[in-house]
Amino acid sequence: MAERPLRVLLDGTPLLGNRTGVGRYTALLCEELAARSDVDTRAVAFTLRGWRRLRGALPHGARARGMPVPARLLRRAWLHGSFPPVELFAGITDVVHGTNFVLPGISRAAGVLTIHDLAFLDAPGELRPSDAELPALVRSGARRADVICTPTDAVADLVADRLDVDRGKVMTTPLGVDPTWFAARPPSEALRARLSLPKQYLLFVGAAGPRKGLDWLARAHAAAPELPQLVYSGPGTFAPTERSQHTGYLTDVDLCHVVAGAAALVLPSRDEGFGLPVLEAMACDVPVVCTDIPALREVSAGLAKLVPFGDVDALVDALRAAVDEPHVASASADRRARAASFTWRRCADATVRAYRAAAER
Which SS3 state, helix, strand or coil, does residue 85 take? Predict the structure, then answer.
């Protein structure tokens, strides 16, 4: 007799609105899970107004559950316990997966929590007022979770140490690179004109924010006028200058082309849990410059130019070297092979192992 599929309920709230890191993780993981026969994938959105949009945001094979609920009130309640349990308004399930740092209140299901990074602990003053309770919520969820997922071993070690949880219940579930990145081509003349892209440019991809190191990048770029123009791509407020510009939030298709056409991708973050743009640039065979921090060292595996955070001269030197890098077939092959080793199927496989480990506890 065939074994019943594992019923999994994901927090699908990150699927609503413009998708950056966590939204893309949730969407692409959900796609892989929905295509599997061993998992019955459902999702719930914790929002009062936008919950109806969840159905249209889910891939074929995944089902929306729940009803309009105010996230702020739920979070406040979950700070003090598991009431109300998510099963109360989303139905019975085997596993509840908090995809975005917060584990919902649970009655009988096993709990899996993804913690993407620990920036909220390092710089709590940079959190939005609506996220002021996030550190306490994450600590509470980490204690209650049967399994914690992290995108890198570096974050897994930090979670165990700084949140005081058993390292044995923390599992690494690395993100993936969509196959379309390996066939990406530089932007067409029409796309260049629409986005006002220069012929040669350095590229930052991500949401604006204090931890992204954009002030440091701006100082380094200003100190080297011979460098190509700097292009920022992502949501948020950037500070464009005569030699930099902001494309705004791009569709996945346009972003692939813009990354593929860059002279180099730069990710000068003070903190990252994974750094997906690094691998996506490698898949396009674009040189990468990024901060020398544990997660980016782990992901780039010696194939990016690493720079100590805040060192303007070192960043200038790395950007110059990346722009002038001669095309070497072996380096190109190594970058693409590294990116190809990260797939969303592999992420889903590791995540399902986490679900089963949680359900058995």
Answer: coil
Name the residue ranges covered by the structural domains of the chain.
6-176+343-360, 179-340
Q: Is the torsion defined by CA of 27, 31, 34, 38 positive or negative?
A: negative
Q: Which class is domain 179-340?
A: alpha beta
- For residue 242, CA distances in Å to 154, 202, 221, 228, 250 come to 38, 14, 11, 12, 22
Using CA atoms, how far apart are residues 281 and 267, in angstroms rounded to an integer?
11
Average pLDDT over residues 125-148: 88
3-state secondary structure of 315: helix
CATH superfamily to which 6-176+343-360 belongs: Glycogen Phosphorylase B; (3.40.50.2000)
Q: What is the dihedral of CA 305, 311, 317, 321, to 10 degrees?
A: 20
With a CB cutoff of 8 Å and minimum separation 6, the contacts of 56 are: none
Range 312-334 average pLDDT: 89
Average pLDDT over residues 317-326: 93
Asked if 144 contacts 133 with a C-beta cutoff of 8 angstroms, the reply is no
